[in-house]
Amino acid sequence: MISIQNLNKVYDKSGNTHALRDVSLTIDDGDIFGIIGISGAGKSTLVRCVNLLEQPTSGSIEVNGTDVTTLSGAELRAYRRHTAMIFQGFGLLAQKTALENVCFPLATGLGRISPEAREKGLELLGRVGLADKANSYPAQLSGGQQQRVAIARALACDPSTILCDEATSALDPASTEQILDLLAQINRETNVTMLVITHSMDVVRRICKHVAVLVDGQVVEQGTTDEVFANPQHRVTRALLGKGDWNA
Q1: φ and ψ at 193, to 5 degrees?
Q2: Residues contacting 59, CB < 8 A, separation 6+
Q3: 0.85 cut: is pTM over it?
Q4: CA gap 3, 24 in Å, rounded
Q5: Distance CA 9, CA 22 (A)
Q6: Tens of pLDDT, residues 23-44
């Protein structure tokens, strides 16, 4: 379980750039939890705090009872290995093949890929439907295929949590549907917890079990996806759903 309590992130000493304000969320094991909001709402800052690419100014992030904001050194590296990221821009290494990209987290300190890692990489490419693209480079793949490689790479270290930061924003509608289906399938098969950052209510509707709405760094509404969609309380939620005016 991920328990975020009273999380704040301030980017300058004067406190004028308050990216997160007293954010509290509970994400159960195996959940697909959506974080939605317009640009600048604090969504990406929140996900970067969860994997500690950003250090929160105050508050706690407990994962299975451990406040990960206190981790450092080997403990922090171990936590990050099991907290995978999937990015909007795919984040693949252009000079490495699909297989080499998937195996990258498993490479030794000398950059070598062991036979065991190679076997696992091929298995993961097969899992995302790209067994025949192992030797292809990112430039030879479509956007949807590149994101599938990124998903396979995210699975390489057997993560307990996958953080998806606008993972489908750069894709066409058909590719988006395929990627969302794949994420939902992986969640069913592995029970991995997913935190999905998005500005699209369609993405939330498609795969998320719970959702929180961020406005100016604050959680203004949260609940099950069905509850929030059926009875949105905040004006921004209603506007995102097309049920209200942005200026209301």
Answers
A1: -80, 135
A2: 4, 5, 6, 7, 8, 22, 23, 69
A3: yes
A4: 8
A5: 9
A6: 999 999 999 999 998 888 899 8
